[in-house]
Amino acid sequence: MTQLLKISLPDGSVREMEPGSTPADVAAAIGPGLAKAALAARVDGEVRDLGRPFDGDAELALITAKDEEDALELARHDFAHVLAEAVQSLFPGTQITFGPATDDGFYYDVKAPDSREPFSMDDLPAIEEEMRRIIKADKPLVREVWSRQQLIEKWQSEGETFKAEWAKELPEDEELTVYWSGEPGSEDGWLDMCRGPHLASTGKLDPQAFKLMRVAGAYWRGDQNNAQLTRIYGTGWLNKKQLNAHLHRLEEAAKRDHRKLGREMDLFHLQEEAHGSVFWHPKGYRIWRELEAYMRRKMDGGGYREIKTPQLMDVRQWTQSGHWGKYAENMFAVPDMVPEVDDEGDGVARPTVEDDADWMAIKPMNCPAHVLVFKQGITSYRDLPIRLGEMGCCHRNEPHGALHGLMRVRQFTQDDAHIFCTEAQVVEEVRTFCKLAAEVYSDFGFNFAIKLALRPESRLGSDADWDKAEQELRDAVQEAGMMNEEFGWEELPGEGAFYAPKLEWHLTDAIGRTWQVGTIQGDRVLPERLDATYIGEDGDKHRPVMLHRAIFGSYERFIGILIEHFAGRLPVWLAPVQSVVATITSDADGYAGEVAAKLEAAGIRAESDLRNEKINYKVREHSLAKVPHLLVVGKREAEEGTVAIRTLGEKEQRVMSLDEAIAMLKDAATPPDLRG
Length: 676
Prior knowledge:
The protein is an alpha+beta fold and 676 residues long. Helix content is 33%, strand content 26%. The strands form 9 sheets. Strands 15-21-22-29-26-25-23-24 form an 8-stranded mixed beta sheet. The protein has a 5-stranded mixed beta sheet with strand order 2-1-5-3-4. It has a 5-stranded mixed beta sheet with strand order 31-30-32-33-34, with helices on both faces.
């Protein structure tokens, strides 16, 4: 008698199935509705095709569109394969390479036939239509296991040099899989090698739920010495409603782009003479100053002592701390000498460096310098915790292609601090920081999630230390009342720093994007490497625990996030210009000057616009600059001692006395931590 397979389901029930049965068979046995809705299966925790037979007794969970994360990953993977098939169908001779799913879609790297130019945006509409044809054809996606030699011969025979090269490097003893789109070996069958899994057929995709977005250059295997390819990007979703929502978010994001708004509001600029470093204009730097003053008040109130540490330190110090071994390629280094300068008569100075020169490195982070400050003098356990803060300017040698406005720069300033404490103080210090971070993000109107990034594979320190450090962070979040769904609690395996686990704060902005900003890390490695000690109650030396923490992260990036979150309409207390007094006629010039002077005397940042321009022109211009309040004055307002206030984003204006207006603006201009 044939031994039936026992398939355990999430509800605790067990289905007995014939050997060779598949998850699709289980779905059909449960009911036609589930059979239609099932997209893939999780078998003993592994996501698999519905049509792949069970290997033996198994735990089964069927994946449907309700399991959105898994379903999106599958759909995007399939969209990528359909994209490659469509390109080869339309343009015979195209070579394909690889195409993964991404956070919001997919891409595929391809090489156009030698007979034509690389693919461009003009090709995308035709490719989209061909993709829809393939989806509507509802072609089965069939998995097969091939040998390495079969794959090599297949790709070589079809002129697929990239695939053949990759196949030659695959391990001999590994199970190698291919997927057919269409009946295997049939005239319209299309083959790609892939680990899978896939949906049961192309028809499981919604033909209206994707859009090809752009093309870009790419290199085979990411090496600029290799052949250049075209990367075709698309966005893919489960249905048209999700696609439309995503496209709307992209449209909103384009309107909110901090680089565009930064120009319109005259906040900052970037240029090639200083790649990755920001030229702050007066209005932009006013935002910075307000944030810095706010953060100083928070740090002062939290018992932090502010310090300032050097930009340059000897490379040997960075080697001892471990940073040189991990981050050397991202650090700027300079010789500790006065170089001789060669001028070959062409006006170009060429400094020469001696072979035995010592080297200094510009700091990419503040941590080692803070340890050196802590080590000055003898510290008693009675002095702990010691909280050292710094608005520390750092530099990291980011590739030019990775730079992005304020969001990714080479020079940045952190609201950085390090807490040196005893083992017994760690949980309370982290708990207190959780509360402080929550206050700050609430002041800016952000919702946030807290996530715990756990040990990476490559790390320093013992497993026992990592166990302890990770549990301390969990305990602190638990005691802060934030280890729950309300605060988006999640653990992220492998994403910690090389020296410590970390708590991360992920902010959600006005259009639903998330930004990882604040962190706190419990570090036992750096105090050991840099020999930091304190005298304990027993009179012996002990190592402090070092907590690395930041809330804004970097001022540059946080300002970029704020600009996009508020679409440039910053809260009044942050706005570089809080009010403009604009005249209707020159008769009111004198009164406008009086109004502006009284506003400034009340601590409100005000400007006057006395230009001989129509008031509607002035309103449009100051609205574009995102000035929160425009105070319009004419002859009548001058006679009555009033102002007509136009608030950004409101259609109606309000007429009120000057004293009332000043009181209203003064209240709005008060930073949230100083209210009440």
